[in-house]
Amino acid sequence: MSEQIYLDYNASTPVEADVVDKMIPFFLKQYGNPSNQSHQFGWAADEAANIAREQLASLIGATPDEIVFTSGASEAVNTAIKGVAKAYANQGKHIITCETEHKAVLASCESLQADGFEITYLPVDDSGQIRPDDLKNALRSDTILVALMWANNETGVLHPMDTITKILADHPALLLSDATQAVGKIPVSVDGIDLLACSAHKFYGPKGVGALYVRKSSPPLRCIPLIHGGAHEGGLRAGTINVPGIVGLGAAAEICEPRMAADRKRLAELRDNFEAALKARVPGVIINGESAERLPQTSNVTFPVSNASIMMSTIGIAAVSSGSSCSTGEGKPSHVLVAHGLSMEQSNGTIRFSMGRTTTKEDMDRVVNDIVKYCDSFVKFNAVLQVSNQT
Predict the structure, then answer these.
(1) Catalytic entry in 98, 256, 326, 375
(2) Is residue 326 among the annotated active site residues?
């Protein structure tokens, strides 16, 4: 059997070897607690975490003191949404988000409704983007937060962040962007952004570590911590920080910066050729979000047959997901595809392909051939079945 081809990089990426090398000393030798400043082990761990702050800050155009380390993007999102809601509840209880957000955002917003918060869910057009006028019309005097993702985890569709920041420039509402799928893959700047979430394992760092950017402003942006205890991370997160993971996050961010442009160009070419080949050889294929600006490595494809049958038959394709890895197994169609206007049948025929640094043209050619072979056999089988039924 041929080696399986991994096409689920949006779910998780492998950790770069150089990143692992940077992490190992903080497991074996420099294992001090950075909160303990009474000896060199604590000093070394604290310095390593601060270097990682600088590395991530450089990647997104922030300052190191605006970086709060977390266990991942879900914690960062929960901290931002719930923390801002509690801090600004006396100014308003209205939050705006979008129907296609990650479940971490949607569930966080839903949890606030029991406390009297009102959530507006913006629709998207058939390309998956919000309409700027919808955002303008949704803003109210009691709107305290707008939460809109930078890039969609299922389709790769990018929201128009420049337009969004301009709309909010003259409104007091804070802007949170879940940039988990964008950081490290495309240029991301926190200019005009108040809070931003990311996760290391989406850009070739380790799992279990992420960050929340919190804009330094005057007066200071207020956010109530989600986890209480010691006054770590500027008072926003209690608990001893994951030093090896944070070192890995910083190292991965530093690697991304100089190679991002070349990676984007190569992966966009792979994606475009892959989609063109599918459309040419599989009748009825739909590329979701094709008309919008998208992440370079993500292709969300609706086939005229079920995604389960394709994934079961093309066993050489590893971990190809039909939706977000955080919400699979629910037995429901993807809420992102429903928001795009896809039917249940179409949703059941949709697969997300996400490529990465090790994906080659030969890999994608083989994937196309395997899918075409299966779809051709499916069509022939149905034709035989129809003839048999007629006789």
Answers:
(1) 326
(2) yes
